């Protein structure tokens, strides 16, 4: 177990592009031996989200305390007053179990992880068909207010421009195709 060389799989994309669906699908593939990196977040839980499963939901104050104590591998104020970050202890926890880590995080955080572990990380950008399509998807999800949706869409255009910095890009135009492509990319990187 001690010489287990854990890998890291980063899936980043604008909110609503389908990356969470892809990550969830990969987690059901036992042969890939992946475990989800649970981020810390200072926002309120949405819908059926659970603390310690989807996120570690903590207050902004607790989040800032952890920043001060250097407990994060990376962190980001993704939206104003909404902090998100990967705790160093989370990656350690997963590697200790002999598993590879999969991240569902924003583009800035994703690229930071890649920079910290360049050899061990496969960074994948999930591209939605268009910003208009994103709008439709986010509205359909309807878990957020109009304001929050607009905030996510404004950010999406900026995020799209970072795609070339990733190792791989998956175009999520057809979900079934995207899921298969994601599986293949992970498998290939595990076999390297
Ligand atoms: P949501 O509020 O929709 O769950 O997430 C908002 C954004 O924050 C998404 O793009 C999500 O991928 C990103 N995010 C989630 N966890 C982390 C994290 O640990 N670090 C960073 N940098 N972004 C994250």
What is the secondary structure topology, with strand pairs?
Layout: E1 8-12, H1 19-27, E2 34-36, E3 39-41, E4 55-57, H2 60-68, E5 72-79, E6 82-87, H3 88-96, E7 100-104, H4 107-116, E8 121-127, H5 131-141, H6 146-160, E9 168-171, H7 175-190
Parallel strand pairs: 1-7, 1-8, 2-7, 3-4, 8-9
Antiparallel strand pairs: 3-6, 5-6
Helix pairs in contact: 5-6
This protein binds guanosine-5'-monophosphate.
Guanosine-5'-monophosphate (5GP) is lined by residues 15, 39, 43, 74, 76, 78, 84-86, 104-106, 108-109.
Number of E-type strands: 9
Shape: globular
Number of separate domains: 1
CATH topological fold name: Rossmann fold
Q: Which architecture does the CATH hierarchy give at level 2?
A: 3-Layer(aba) Sandwich
| Distance between the amino and carboxyl termini | 19 Å
Structural class: alpha/beta
Main sheet summary: 5 strands, parallel
What's the order of the H and E elements?
Answer: EHEEEHEEHEHEHHEH
Q: Give the averaged pLDDT, no decimals.
A: 92
């Amino acid at each position: 177990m001690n010489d287990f060389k854990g890998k890291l799989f980063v899936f980043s994309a604008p909110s609503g592009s389908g990356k969470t669906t892809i990550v969830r699908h990969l987690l059901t593939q036992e042969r890939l031996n992946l475990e989800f990196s649970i981020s810390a977040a200072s926002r309120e839980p949405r819908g059926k989200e659970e603390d310690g499963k989807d996120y570690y939901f903590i207050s902004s104050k607790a989040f800032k305390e952890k920043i001060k104590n250097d407990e994060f591998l990376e962190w980001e104020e993704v939206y104003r007053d909404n902090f998100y970050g990967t705790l160093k202890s989370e990656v350690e926890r997963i590697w200790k179990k002999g598993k590879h880590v999969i991240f569902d995080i924003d583009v800035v955080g994703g690229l930071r992880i890649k920079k910290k572990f360049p050899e061990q990380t496969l960074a994948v950008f999930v591209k939605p068909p268009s910003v208009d399509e994103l709008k439709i998807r986010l509205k359909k999800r309807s878990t957020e207010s109009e304001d929050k949706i607009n905030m996510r869409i404004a950010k999406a255009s900026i995020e799209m421009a970072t795609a070339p910095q990733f190792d791989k890009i998956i175009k999520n135009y057809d979900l079934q195709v995207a899921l298969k492509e994601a599986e293949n990319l992970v498998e290939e990187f595990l076999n390297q």
